[in-house]
Amino acid sequence: MVKSPKAIVGWREIVALPELGLRHLPAKIDSGARTSSLHAEVLEQFERDGEKFVRFAVDFPQQKVRQICEAVHVDIRGITSSNGETQKRFVIKTPLTIGSETFRVEISLANRADMKFPMLVGRSSLRRRFLVDSGHSWLQTPGREPVKGHKP
Q1: If residue 140 lies in a helix (H) or strand (E), which one and from where to where?
Q2: Count of domains in the chain?
Q3: Rounded CA gap, 75 and 128, in Å?
């Protein structure tokens, strides 16, 4: 059996979460992180038709825009952040688009206000789909010229 080649992503890409209405999200690709995360402020949890939902806000301070999103929440988990601290976070499952591929992923909702990227794409989302070239950016970002090097 011949395996099809995997697409290559850079260490940063522009991604989309189409079911949430979020497009052009700058994302850091981080194979060291297991779970993907999105900068969001959880506003409330509620039930609709017997399913648990979470309503949250995603802020885009440069554009002075706040997007309110709703998603089925699949879990509340202890997620260990990069500083080694474990936090309880809502985890949602939603389609993620990177380049021409769209697939369902689990994303934890976290306060990433101090981070350069509002979205972090972890290795669980990348597995069996992409290889990471940490020396390049924008390899799967239409309309952006790929950039070599790590300069943000």
Answers
A1: none
A2: 1
A3: 24
